User: Which sequence fits this backbone?
């Protein structure tokens, strides 16, 4: 932590605390054409109030390109279509799978041959959390 | 019509979003420092757990109920609240946030039947956040509040109630005056003494009598019950007249240096609130105390009148620390300290002392600090005295993760 004595910062000379750079010389000819940079929120989030992030800990969806450590962007406001990848709570635990609805039952299908389909009967404890819209994976961290 | 949306067992519902394993378990939430119960779900309430009870008194009962106990996670509750308010804004021409879990909706250009609209809002909020809400509609805010209460208590299954004008008399006759928004226990006792027991009795009370015996606010409540909107947003939540920042320590503190650090931090967070509501303070009060039921007991406070109203942190911190050093005595186990700012006035309305013309410069510093904190977080800049992370910081043993605001805390999925 950087510690600056208050006296030096707020001396009588009253230098404004400025965070922007100062420009001199000719104005840029491109200034009128400037746009905001690319915004990842705009790309990944459709309805902010309904969007949540979860971290993947298992390998049951590697076939769909979802690996342990990935961050899932989940939109709760979307109702899943058959075959969508969704997060649901089965018997009190969150799981990510492909979801299918077949007359009265819900089928959760992993994308890894080491795992079996989960059929959720009406008597089982099932809660849909939301539909996965994006996966964020960082390859190199600074 | 005006709608009032109220979240059901809000804190408990927030805790449940990311804990599907707690679907049927009772949930209680404790106050800052884990002292008392501040919130519980319906299940815990049904089992006799009440708000305000000291935690240690019901620890055994809660264990027997297999209740899940949480420290209050205000970061999570505020984020979920912001989400809900954002969703509500998409359903009404205008909204007014009344508290962390309540908002009024103004439905001037609504074309849907109210029950249908209510259902749509309920479904949307519950799907997007997982939090169930109740909705009441009425001609005024006070009537909407009554309708909401009715929805919660009598129509639990659907959670919606619309109080139509022709039904008002029959419903108001079944509401106790104490349950009217804006009528507190003292006013209710006074009304009871004069034979006014129900909301209908009160609505039929002559205006001159209310004017003579009660306040202007009560008169507004009367008009609202008659269907005349009379409560404006600024009346519902007046700016604070006093700002208090205080916490108990998790371990007793004996030495002055630690108390100084704590007091500086409280001064800083009080000033943050002061600046946020655009006010300045004319006085600072500082206090310290030991445990109320342990010997030796010691408590003292000092009030310092400032030379002129200010929101300048270094000055407020300086006076708070001066006061602290005056009241501090060695040899005690202090468990609580706090800073209170009083004599608040709006920033722009104050006549400045001609001979103390340092105000402009101080305001610039205050604004710059605020700017830095809003851009880089509240810990990016603070006065040199307060360093967070000390051992006396709030005791919160059962704090849930900040699921929605910290990358390190997002929930796991298998």
Assistant:
């Amino acid at each position: 932590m950087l510690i600056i004595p208050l006296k030096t910062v707020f001396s009588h000379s009253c230098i404004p605390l400025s965070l922007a750079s100062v420009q001199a010389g000719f104005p840029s000819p491109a200034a009128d054409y400037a746009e905001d940079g690319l915004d990842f929120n705009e790309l990944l989030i459709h309805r902010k109030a309904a969007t949540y992030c979860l971290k993947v800990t298992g390998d049951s969806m590697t076939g769909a390109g979802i690996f342990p450590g990935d961050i899932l962007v989940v939109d709760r406001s979307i109702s899943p279509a058959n075959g969508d990848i969704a997060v649901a709570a089965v018997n009190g635990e969150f799981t990510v799978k492909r979801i299918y609805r077949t007359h009265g039952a819900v089928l959760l299908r992993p994308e890894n041959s080491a795992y079996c389909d989960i059929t959720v009967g009406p008597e089982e404890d099932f809660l849909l959390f939301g539909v996965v819209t994006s996966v964020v994976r960082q390859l190199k961290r600074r | 019509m005006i709608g009032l949306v109220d979240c059901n067992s809000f804190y408990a519902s927030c805790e449940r979003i990311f804990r599907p394993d707690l679907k049927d378990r009772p949930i209680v939430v404790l106050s800052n420092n884990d002292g008392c119960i501040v919130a519980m779900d319906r299940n815990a309430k049904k089992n006799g757990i009440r708000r305000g009870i000291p935690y240690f008194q019901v620890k055994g009962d809660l264990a027997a109920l297999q209740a899940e106990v949480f420290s209050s996670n205000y970061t999570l509750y505020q984020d979920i609240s912001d989400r809900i308010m954002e969703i509500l804004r998409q359903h009404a021409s205008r909204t007014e946030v009344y508290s962390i879990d309540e908002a009024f909706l103004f439905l001037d250009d609504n074309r849907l039947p109210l029950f249908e609209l209510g259902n749509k809002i309920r479904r949307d909020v519950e799907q997007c956040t997982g939090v169930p809400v109740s909705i009441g509609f009425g001609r005024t805010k006070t009537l909407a509040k009554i309708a909401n209460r009715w929805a919660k208590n009598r129509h639990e299954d659907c959670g919606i109630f619309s109080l139509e004008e022709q039904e008002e008399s029959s419903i108001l006759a079944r509401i106790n005056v104490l349950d009217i928004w804006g009528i507190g226990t003292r006013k209710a006792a006074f009304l009871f003494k004069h034979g006014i027991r129900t909301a209908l009795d009160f609505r039929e009370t002559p205006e001159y009598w209310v004017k003579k015996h009660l306040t202007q606010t009560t008169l507004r409540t009367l008009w609202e019950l008659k269907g005349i909107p009379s409560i404006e947003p600024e009346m519902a939540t007046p700016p604070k007249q006093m700002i208090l920042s205080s916490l108990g320590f998790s371990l007793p503190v004996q030495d002055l240096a630690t108390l100084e650090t704590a007091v500086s931090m409280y001064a800083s967070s009080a000033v943050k609130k002061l600046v946020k509501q655009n006010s300045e303070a004319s006085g600072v009060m500082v206090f310290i105390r030991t445990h109320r039921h342990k010997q030796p007991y010691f408590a003292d406070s000092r009030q310092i009148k400032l030379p002129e109203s200010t929101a300048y942190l270094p000055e407020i911190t300086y006076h708070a620390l001066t006061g602290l050093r005056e009241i501090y005595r060695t040899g005690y186990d202090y468990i609580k300290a706090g800073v209170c700012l009083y004599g608040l006035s709006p920033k722009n309305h104050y006549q400045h002392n001609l001979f103390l013309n340092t105000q402009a410069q101080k305001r610039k510093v205050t604004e710059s600090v605020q700017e830095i904190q809003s851009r880089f977080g509240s810990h990016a800049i603070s006065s040199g005295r307060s360093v967070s992370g000390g051992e006396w910081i709030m005791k919160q043993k059962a704090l849930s993760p900040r699921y929605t605001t910290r990358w390190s805390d997002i929930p796991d999925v298998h």
Notes: Residues 256-276 of chain B form the longest helix (21 residues).
